[in-house]
Design brief:
multifunctional enzyme; single chain; 5-stranded antiparallel beta sheet; globular; alpha+beta; Oxidative_DNA_repair_enzyme; 15 helices; two-stranded antiparallel sheet; Endonuclease III, domain 1; DNA repair; 38% helix; DNA_glycosylase; 8-oxo-7,8-dihydroguanine DNA N-glycosylase activity
Length: 399
């Protein structure tokens, strides 16, 4: 079958704007931002960024990926038209859009999304990716090898309940999050598992938020992320420190000096919903990606910390840093409410490290000249055994 175009609807998609910006955490950059590999449902998906489109590799003999990827990338939402509408309402969005063209809100699997954002509390993108990849490799099923990497499904709620223990997760660097992962898996199982989560897509935003907040380890911001990125609540507004600072600076200056309480969190969300309507979460995503890119270009007012000694984190009024809770878990409803994945790259300790990948290069034929990347998180590295490169290899066991 070979390469096929993803974009049936004329919508722009830029992989670097959606796969590395704190929505999804298990995509591997294979070829300097041009080629990516990840798992969607139970399939390894290989994507290639072209100038005006995204192409995906369709393996002969397997079920077509077109509908699966159309759903994952939300191509049914006319994002380009939506951004034009936002730009007419707000000059900040108007300035941001040319810089972040191709940004979209993904439609993620709710189970993986929920546990990914439990891992995100007071954390940074690199370590979140380490944790999420560990959960998949340790408790999911191995489905294929590609470009020297082993790929796994994300574990089901049942698999997490049966296999994951707080002790093992703590030993592997999850810290206080270990208790919340185990507790959330059990709570979801009691409520009906995956079926219960999927049913939330049909409920309104406030109901979804209330139900998510009942789960261990989920506070306001994490609930907002889960609702926006996996439960179709496109009027949900995740508020981290960067959106908070932008809001105070450019939208609601009267909040300066105030704490980001639950009431203020809701007030900010209502402001953006009034301004941008029932798709306000897409506008927030554009603003966040703008800040994200500025931060990594070094043009943000946020200062990157130097490696070495742990330093107390400077925070806005009402924001909690992990340094404030030495030696114990951060309270469940405070830990994840206000901190961005960008905020704590140096202050979180643990044992999660990039694990060595297999150097057996098992690549799809179009990538026969590619080398495996050096940041694999495969939990079970294979013994080096050079072979000819070939297409992703299906696995019939759990690896």
């Amino acid at each position: 079958m070979g390469w096929k175009k993803l974009n049936r609807c004329g919508e722009s998609v830029r992989l670097e704007k959606v796969l590395q910006k704190g929505m999804a955490f298990r995509w591997r950059e294979i070829d300097e931002g041009q080629t990516w590999a990840g798992v969607v449902k139970d399939r390894v998906v290989v994507l290639k960024q072209e100038q005006e489109d995204v192409e995906y590799w369709q393996e002969p003999g397997l079920e077509p990926l077109e509908e699966t990827l159309a759903d994952y990338f939300n191509v049914g939402v006319k994002c380009d038209r939506l951004m034009k509408t936002f730009a007419e309402k707000d000059e900040n969005i108007a300035r941001a859009i040319p810089l972040v063209r191709g940004t979209r809100v993904l439609r993620l699997d709710p189970v993986e999304c929920l546990f990914s954002f439990i891992c995100s509390s007071n954390n940074n993108v690199k370590r979140i990716s380490s944790m999420v990849n560990f959960l998949a490799a340790q408790y999911g099923k191995r489905v294929a090898d590609f470009a020297g990497h082993q790929f796994y499904t994300f574990p089901t709620i049942g698999e997490l309940c049966d296999k994951a223990t707080e002790q093992e997760l703590r030993e592997n660097g999850f810290g206080y999050r270990a208790r919340y992962i185990v507790g959330a898996a059990r709570a979801l199982q009691e409520r009906g598992g995956e079926k219960w989560l999927l049913q939330l897509r049909s409920e309104d935003r406030n109901q979804v938020s209330e139900k998510l907040l009942e789960l261990p380890g989920i506070g306001k911001k994490v609930a907002s992320c889960i609702a926006l990125f996996s439960l179709d609540k496109y009027d949900e507004i995740p508020i981290d420190t960067h959106i908070w600072k932008m809001t105070v600076s450019k939208y609601i200056p009267s909040l300066k000096g105030k704490s980001l309480t639950n009431a203020v969190y809701d007030k900010i969300g209502d402001h953006y919903r009034t301004l941008f309507g029932d798709m306000a979460g897409w506008a927030q995503t554009v603003l966040f990606v703008t800040v994200f890119d500025d931060y990594h270009r070094g043009t943000s007012t946020s200062k990157k910390r130097k490696t070495g000694k742990r330093k107390a984190q400077k925070v806005e009024p009402g924001l909690k840093a992990e340094e404030e809770f030495p030696g114990k878990a951060i309270p469940a409803k405070e830990e994840d409410m206000y901190l961005s994945p960008l905020d704590s790259s140096e202050i979180v300790e643990g044992n999660i490290k990039p694990l060595r990948h297999s150097e057996e290069n098992l690549a799809v034929s179009p990538f026969s000249l590619l080398s495996p990347s050096e940041d694999s998180f495969d939990a079970k590295p294979a013994k080096r055994n050079p072979t000819n490169r070939r297409s992703p290899r299906r696995q019939n066991d759990a690896g």
